[in-house]
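Re: that chain you flagged

S.,

Sorry for the slow reply, it's been a week of failed gels. I finally had a moment to sit down with the sequence you sent. For the record, here it is as I used it:
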Amino acid sequence: MPAELIKEQSRCIAHEIRNQVSICDVYCEILKKHLAKNGLEDKSIDNAIDCIQKSVKMINNSLIDLKSLDNIKPAVCFTKNLVEESIKLAKVYISDKKINIIANVKTNEKIYADENKFLACLINLIKNAIEAIDMSGEIIVTANTQGDNAVISVSNTGRPISQSAQKEIFNEGYTTKKTGSGLGLYICKNNLKLQNAKLLLIQSTARKTEFKIEIPVMK
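Prediction finished late last night. Pasting the structure tokens below so you have them in one place:
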């Protein structure tokens, strides 16, 4: 296996694991705020939270992994389940913001996809939408059908993506975030492509930003 391919896979896998590990850090902050709000002091809990956050930092700094090329494992999935599960898992990123995430399931299509990787892409899109909203706003995750394709779209009322960024947003390494890796949308687009699906940016204006996933419906 070429060294460049191993390097790319390591970076992509590390990015996905970091996304999941970051949930531990988010919940640690929630616990800290809950304890402070209720005037509770417990050295053992404080120590546990501190250890978890340090461990998360260490994991993020040392994540290296390799994976085979045959890493897509498709199975029968339903769009309604994917939408509902992705919203449930992504809500942790809301934190103190006042964001309403709405599931708008118009059709429940059967598709052939790698459930974990498909969910990871949806969660990444919702997470990005949450980050685009400063304090309050709305995110709508819609499941619909267009011709022979099942379509899942994620729209938000947050900050728009600049015209220049829209041209580069799916490129590896491109990011507008101070701490971003520029891998999130790049990984999503490539993982979905391996599942015979497409990821598209439909629009990004002051009113709405919308991404769309298209995947063939199972006959």
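What I noticed first: The chain has two domains: 3-62, 75-216.

Talk soon,
D.
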